[in-house]
């Protein structure tokens, strides 16, 4: 076991371990901070804690399985980058919440292999978070609250991926991009400038049994989901303010069944507009718009089709 503890005014640590069952721990409080930890092997653990000032952390684990990396950064300029190669690994980053404004944030986690999970929590600050996972059966989560800048981007390439983004207030934006089969993408935004976008499929083409959902409550809104080929399900719910929405689904070929299902619900007090375009197979597009500006645009081409549009609904 190796344990590093530094309570000095500035800290710079670089450590490398090659073996199984490694444990690396570092703590820093104050000023320029920076930690770099590299581990190779399985069942290793790396924990870094930084309480203030310029921060940065970076933990790399490679060539094994069942590793865990944790970065905890309280305040000031932060950054944190965690990279894992192998299977059944977990990566966790938490930035803030020293309240009031928890400064720079950034976060970035990259995992390749199977059955990995990555979670980033940013509790106020300028935020940003980027998570990239390659392989199968991954889970990626980003949670941003008491927030300011926001932005979150997750890219998952492989099958049976799950991506979740939650943003509670301030600048918002969120983008998830998934390529593979049986993927699930979900974005929840509560308040302020919003935007969100999810794209599933075409790697090389399928998004077989994939689902995408976006929920936006309050302020400028806009949401967009694009799914390509096969059996998809897309859902957008917007409540209050700017609205827009737009879903495109396609089933140009591949394994096809009756797939497709598109649902948009825009509540009262919104600028509304919606649009659902589906190209082939099972189809079904439902659009519900409450009181206010309304508009709608549904295009379905080929196969079973069915469309329901209700405006000014209770």
From TrEMBL:
Signal peptide: 1-19
Listed Low complexity bias regions: 21-34, 75-90
Region ranges (Disordered): 21-136, 277-314
Residue spans of biased composition, Polar residues class: 35-74, 103-115, 124-136
Alphabetic keyword roster: Signal
Name of this chain's protein: Curlin associated repeat-containing protein
Organism: Hymenobacter lucidus
Source species taxonomy: Bacteria, Pseudomonadati, Bacteroidota, Cytophagia, Cytophagales
């Amino acid at each position: 076991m190796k344990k590093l503890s530094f309570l000095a005014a500035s800290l710079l640590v670089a450590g490398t371990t090659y073996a199984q069952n490694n444990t690396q721990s570092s703590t820093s409080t104050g000023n320029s901070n920076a930690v770099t930890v590299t581990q190779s092997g399985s069942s290793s653990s790396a924990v870094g804690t930084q309480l203030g000032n310029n921060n940065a952390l970076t933990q790399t684990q490679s060539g094994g399985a069942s590793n865990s990396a944790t970065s905890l950064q309280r305040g000031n300029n932060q950054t944190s980058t965690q990279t894992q190669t192998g299977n059944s690994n977990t990566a966790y980053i938490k930035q803030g919440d020293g309240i009031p404004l928890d400064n720079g944030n950034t976060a970035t986690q990259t995992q390749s292999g199977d059955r990995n999970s990555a979670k980033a929590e940013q509790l106020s600050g300028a935020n940003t978070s980027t998570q990239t996972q390659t392989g199968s059966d991954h889970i990626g989560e980003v949670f941003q609250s008491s927030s300011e800048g926001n932005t979150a981007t997750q890219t998952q390439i492989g099958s049976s991926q799950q991506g979740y983004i939650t943003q509670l207030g301030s600048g918002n934006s969120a983008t998830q991009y998934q390529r593979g089969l049986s993927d699930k993408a979900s974005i929840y935004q509560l308040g302020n400038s919003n935007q969100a976008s999810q794209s599933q499929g075409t790697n090389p083409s399928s998004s077989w049994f994939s689902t995408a959902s976006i929920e936006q409550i309050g302020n400028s809104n806009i949401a967009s989901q694009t799914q390509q080929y096969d059996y998809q399900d897309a859902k957008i719910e917007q409540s209050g303010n700017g609205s827009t929405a737009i879903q495109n689904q396609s089933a140009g070929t591949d394994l096809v069944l009756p797939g497709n299902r598109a649902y948009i619900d825009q509540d009262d007090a919104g600028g509304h507009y919606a649009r659902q375009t589906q190209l082939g197979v099972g189809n079904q597009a439902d659009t519900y718009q409450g009181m206010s500006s309304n508009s709608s645009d549904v295009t379905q081409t080929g196969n079973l089709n069915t469309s329901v549009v209700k405006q000014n609904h209770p």
